[in-house]
Amino acid sequence: MKLTPRAPYAYRDDPAVPAFDDGGPRTVMDARCGLCAKGARWIAHNDRAGRFRIIPMQSPLGAALFAHFGLDPGDPASWLLIDEGRGYTSLDAIIRTGGHLGGWSAALAAFCILPRPVQDWGYGMVARNRYRLSARVDLCTLPDPAVQERLIL
């Protein structure tokens, strides 16, 4: 999935994007996807610095950020990481997230050795089948307090 190229922090000047705290990495993910909920738990439990925040793509802020970066919230491959004002998606976002989290999560960088078409194909296969791979959930009502305190609704 290709993002519309944007200058860093361009969303701050976009009147369609509500103001939000962008003082660290922000991930915009499907709040109804069980696999995404597992990703949110992974972030919440491995982000020892507490910098990450999670924005449901179904929220007004999530939808506005998707639109700003040219993403379709209806596309199953849609996942967005905003880091230092820039947008990343797909495996790029996952690798960058792993780098921030450190430890074993940093090993995700090994996926960089794969050719881009293979990376995109693998990510796309998982993303398109995410509802089959994991049950549907409501990320916003997960009983996990570590996830709840990171949500920006």
Tell me what the structure shows.
The protein is of the alpha+beta class and 153 residues long. It has one domain. The chain has 6 helices and 4 strands. It has helices spanning 34-46, 60-68, 90-101, 116-128, 130-133, 145-148; strands at residues 26-29, 53-56, 80-83, 86-89. Strand 1, helix 1 (34-46) and strand 2 (53-56) form a beta-alpha-beta unit.
Cα separation of the termini: 25 Å
| Whole-number count of domains | 1
Oligomer: single chain
Mean pLDDT comes to 83
Note the main sheet.
4 strands, mixed
The ordered H/E elements are EHEHEEHHHH
Computed Rg: 14 Å
Percentage of residues in helical conformation: 25-40%
Strands in their spatial order, largest beta sheet? 2-1-3-4
Structural class designation: alpha+beta
Give me the count of strands. 4
Backbone shape? globular
Number of continuous helical runs: 6
Short structural summary:
The chain is α+β, with helices and mostly antiparallel strands and 153 residues long. The chain has one domain.
Task: Tag the structure with descriptive keywords.
4 strands, alpha+beta, globular, 153 residues, four-stranded mixed beta sheet, 6 helices, single chain
Secondary-structure blueprint of this entry?
Elements: E1 26-29, H1 34-46, E2 53-56, H2 60-68, E3 80-83, E4 86-89, H3 90-101, H4 116-128, H5 130-133, H6 145-148
Parallel strand pairs: 1-2
Antiparallel strand pairs: 1-3, 3-4
